[in-house]
Write a structure and sequence with these properties.
Layout lengths: L7 H17 L13 H5 L11 E3 L7 E6 L23 E9 L3 H12 L6 E3 L8 E9 L3 H5 L6 E9 L10 E10 L5 H13 L1 E2 L14 H10 L2 H10 L7 H11 L5 H8 L7 H12 L4 H6 L2 H25 L7 E3 L10 H9 L5 H4 L13 E3 L1 E2 L2 E8 L2 E9 L4 H5 L4 E3 L15 H5 L5 H6 L1 H14 L2
Parallel strand pairs: 1-14, 2-5
Antiparallel strand pairs: 1-7, 2-7, 3-5, 3-6, 4-5, 7-13, 8-11, 9-10, 12-13
Helix pairs in contact: 6-7, 6-12, 8-9, 9-10
Length: 471
């Protein structure tokens, strides 16, 4: 199988170096203390809820189970216990259900493309699922035969329910997602939680974009996107390669700061990041493009096409978060549906113009002419509020397990911020309890025993990676 920048071997290759550095400078692997709402403020959620119980999320991928709900209403469960999909109506495309752990949908697609020796564009999916989670979703593979896809062996991925049909999956072709979450609380929960959950289910919550939209562990994707929309491609490249973040471990932030001193010497920067081939795998792709193109910032951004799309989307998400926050803080009414900030129309909606001007974005369409793969739709809208469909919850000694559905484009972390003062990342709070729960079995919706055993190595690696990189 060809090696890709997403290959798990890259992670294994850097562990000896990281372990040695951790022994020598342990203080570089401890996050600086952060305020309760520092992360929310960074991503534009400035309307803070009243005092809520503290709840730690994403201790383990098994604490955050995401199962895609297809357009025909089928939940693609991680343990394979779901109904049948629509009958095949042609050929040319192989469809399969994918359960993954420890990697994003983008990395999983890249691994499959490498194994099949096909372009990444041949791998289709409807939504991008978290890395620090156990997730289930449908994927499509165009131009490969069923047996080749059935025979794939990809780290961190299990494929099942294969069939041949026609068409391809594209982003947005899903009804929503089902979340089964274990939240580990500082103190035992009481009946007040039942009341809070009932209020969220009945009234809904503001449709904020959650932290994962902004690129873990730095949460700077909207900054890169804003530079692109200004047409300042050099600033986007500089920020992506070198801008440190208080949300990443000092060890990695320091490496970026050191590389910044050599900005423009792409070979030197590449050498400095080569010791961490997994942590800086995407940065190295960009640096290789810079070396090959004699420093073309446009070609550097184009080398990370999927990531660049996410950066621009993150900026629009930032504008929406700021707008919703202002409305919530002032108790101002909003229509049920609000427009997206940017589209193929040159004139943005009035509600965003002041923010765009403040951010120095005057003509986003002109800024994107050099990057034709970055496109917008027309007259797109999204709900200003979302209402989860709650399937159930169970209080356990460590906290609570709950399950709910959300429509596409909505985030579980948005719902959780109305129920808990959420805590995540490293170091672990001293009050956290770490019992290994089978959340689906606790709620009577399935059983994770088999899939946990199948993905045992990936689960272990994911926990180690969380410890080392806060991802």
């Amino acid at each position: 199988m060809a090696t890709s920048h997403a290959d798990q071997n890259l992670w294994q290759a850097e562990q000896g170096y990281v372990s040695a550095q951790k022994k020598e400078r342990p203080e570089l692997f401890v996050s600086a203390p952060k305020g309760t709402f520092d992360l929310h403020d960074r991503i534009g959620i400035t309307s803070h809820p009243p005092t809520l119980p503290k709840g730690y999320i994403k201790y383990s991928p098994l604490d955050f189970i995401v199962e895609e709900i297809t357009l025909d209403g089928i939940a693609v469960t991680v343990d394979g216990t779901h109904g049948e999909h629509t009958e095949p109506d042609g050929a040319g495309t192989v469809y399969a259900d994918m359960t993954k752990v420890g990697i994003s949908t983008l990395d999983a697609a890249q691994r499959m493309a490498d194994a099949l020796h096909c372009p990444l564009q041949k791998i289709g999916y409807s939504g991008i699922k978290d890395a620090l989670a156990m997730t289930g979703q449908r994927i499509s593979v165009r131009g490969s035969d069923l047996e080749a896809v059935r025979g794939l062996s990809v780290p961190g991925v299990v494929l099942s329910h294969f069939m041949e049909s026609k068409g391809v999956l594209a982003p947005g072709q899903l009804r929503g997602n089902r979340f089964t979450l274990t939240i580990r609380t500082e103190n035992p929960l009481d009946t007040a939680f039942d009341a809070a959950l009932g209020a969220v289910a009945s009234r809904g919550v503001m449709n904020y974009y959650g932290p994962q939209r902004f690129g873990t562990p730095r949460f700077l994707a909207h900054v890169f996107g804003a530079h692109i929309l200004r047409g300042d491609y050099a600033a986007a490249v500089y920020a992506y390669l070198t801008l440190p973040s208080p949300f990443e471990l000092p060890f990695y932030a320091n490496r970026r700061a050191a590389a910044a001193e050599h900005f423009g010497d792409w070979k030197k920067m590449h050498e400095m990041m080569l010791e961490l081939p997994y942590a800086f795998r995407q940065e190295r792709v960009m640096l290789e493009a810079l070396m090959q193109s004699n420093g073309s910032h446009v070609k550097a951004i184009s080398s990370l096409e999927q990531q660049a799309k996410m950066w621009v989307q993150a900026y629009t998400s930032y504008l929406i978060n700021l707008t919703l926050s202002e409305a919530e803080s002032n108790d101002a009414p909003l229509p049920d549906m609000i427009p997206l900030p940017l589209s193929e129309s040159p004139e943005p909606p009035a509600m965003y113009r002041e923010l765009l001007a403040r951010h120095g974005i005057a003509n986003h369409l002109a800024a994107l002419k050099a990057l034709p793969f970055l496109t917008f739709g027309r007259n797109q809208q999204l709900p200003s509020r979302i209402r989860p469909t709650v399937h159930g919850h169970k209080v356990v000694p460590d906290g609570v397990i709950l399950s709910f559905d959300l429509p596409k484009g909505a985030y579980a972390t948005t719902v959780l911020m109305y129920l808990f003062e959420t805590v995540t990342g490293m170091p672990l709070p001293e009050w956290i309890r770490t019992t290994d729960y089978d959340a689906k079995r606790e709620l009577g919706t399935g059983d994770l025993t088999t899939i946990k055993e199948t993905l045992k190595e990936a689960l272990t690696t994911s926990m180690l990676n969380k410890t080392e990189q806060e991802e």
